[in-house]
Amino acid sequence: MPATADANALGRYLRVRRALVRPDAAGVPGQGNRRVPGLRREEVAFLAGVSSDYYVRLEQGRDRHPSDQVLLAIARALQLDEDATAYLLQLAKPPSPRSKRTRRPEKVSDGIRTLISSWPLTPAYVHGRYMDILAANNLATALCPFITPGRNAVLDAFTEPEMRELRPDWDVVTARAVPHLRSIAGADTGDPRLVELVGELSLRSERFRTLWARQDVKHKTTGTSLFNHPQVGPLALNYERLLIPGSDMQALVTYHAQPGSDSEERLRLLDSITTTGPDTPVRPRPARPHTPTPDH
Questions:
Q1: SS3 state at 136
Q2: How far apart are CA 281 and CA 274, in angstroms?
Q3: By C-alpha distance, which of 157, 163, 115, 114 is closest to 133?
Q4: I need a labelling partner for 161 at 20 to 30 A (CA). Which of 23, 30, 111, 254 fits?
Q5: Listing from the earlier edge strand, what are the strands of the sheet with 251-256?
Q6: Per-residue pLDDT tens over the stretch 23-46
Q7: What is the C-alpha separation between 151 and 55, in angstroms, rounded?
Q8: Angle, vertex CA 169, rays to CA 235 and CA 38, nearest 5
Q9: What whole-number distance in Å separates Cα of residue 117 and Cα of residue 228?
């Protein structure tokens, strides 16, 4: 579902998450054929220690001022983790007045640009609130040609066929990209930039539509990424995502290989190719969306 200003975002989130909880995992015994997936409303209410009528009012948007105590109890009933619980609390807060001023273009400080350009064996880049690539060093672009300023990491992950060839863990990459996008966007799903991005992704990718509808939220800051690079072969690189203080949710992403590993040797080889070989610019992103094509 595309991002819009949702008058009952809290209720919709509760319904979606309730449908994803297995009754047996929540300690609710099965009772023959269940007509709804996941938990029933009255079961969530019982597990959270609130009345069924009150919980129904929350889902229907007739009560929009629940206490944090109630929300935390519901979060436990729905088996939400820390990130999802924080998102639930955000949804219940009154929306802040939207500024009528146009959002200023995101800029990366000269200090950060100098820092990442000084790392010869560490692919690094900076993305903004909605995963727009704002800065990248040469090795990051050599590792993945779509890591270049002016592109969007989420859009490319779902819509560029070359990404499936480059990323053998494409299913994992896309599955974690959407919860991360929700986590950094927060509860303000009516932000014009987010509406634009989610709208384009929803038109062009069935997989994105499916993942976005789950409303998963996860701010993952570290892990392992796999690459099948056409010049140097397979690489397994650890990544770190660090928020840049005072930058309105800009994040610095770095990749590094385990010392002494084959991936480290291949990263050195890629650096030598990048240093001595000609640049190969990525083809520019089209100004308008392509004709929608389904995922296969």
A1: strand
A2: 12
A3: 157
A4: 254
A5: 133-136, 124-127, 251-256, 233-243, 222-229
A6: 887 777 665 567 777 899 999 999
A7: 43
A8: 150
A9: 24
**Hey, what amino acid is at 52?**
S
Tell me how far apart the alpha carbons of residues 199 and 86 are, in angstroms, rounded to a whole number.
25
Contacts of 271 (CB under 8 A, 6+ apart): 120, 121, 139, 142
Contact status, residue 218 vs residue 180, Cβ threshold 8 Å: yes
Q: Using CA atoms, how far apart are residues 46 and 43, in angstroms rounded to an integer?
A: 5
Q: Amino acid letter at 1?
A: M
Cα(27)–Cα(269) distance, rounded to whole angstroms? 53
Residues of the chain with pLDDT under 50: 1-5, 99-101, 278-296
Q: How many Å apart are CA 7 and CA 291, to the nearest integer? A: 31
Cα-based torsion angle of the residue sequence 195, 285, 181, 229 in order, rounded to the nearest 10 degrees:
160
Beta carbons of 289 and 142 less than 8 angstroms apart: no
